[in-house]
Amino acid sequence: MSDASGPGPAPGVSEEQLREYLQQLRSAPVDQVFAEVLSGLLNAAQAKLGRRDGRLLIDVAAVAVEHARPYLSPDLLGQLDPAFQQLQVEQARAEEAVAQQPGAEPNDLAEAPGSPAGEAGPGAAAPPRPQGSPSSGLWVPGR
Predict the structure, then answer these.
(1) Other CB atoms closer than 10 Å to residue 87's CB: what's the count?
(2) What angle do CA 46, 48, 51 make, to 5 degrees?
(3) Poorest-confidence range of 91-95, 129-133, 135-139?
(4) What is the pTM of this model?
(5) Are residues 78 and 33 in contact, defined by beta-carbon separation less than 8 angstroms?
(6) In the predicted model, is pLDDT for residue 136 greater than 90?
(7) Cα dihedral sign for 132, 119, 80, 44?
């Protein structure tokens, strides 16, 4: 999100501070950058549990993790995989609770998101995910 004033540092940020930040970002390990970006998506998803846009944020984050998985450290993956499993269970429970409420929440998506693009395509190698029966209420991304 940029403002109409054009390129340049954000208000209150000097050119030197911007250069230092960009140098830190450039030299940071990909795990660190990825974790910071993913943190924003997952925090937003957690705030939106039960909503269709919450499901979309979880799906987008899951696609990003699957794409980057070969390049991420086992330590980071060891934190992300359980976090996704927990969010998926919480999303399913929250969707059930929201379904009992009358009316839709403001600013939610009009319909549930479909499967992420390419998820079931040739060569897609998703890690094993907990599978629930259709009546178990367990939500699996893209289903």
Answers:
(1) 23
(2) 130
(3) 129-133
(4) 0.69
(5) no
(6) no
(7) negative
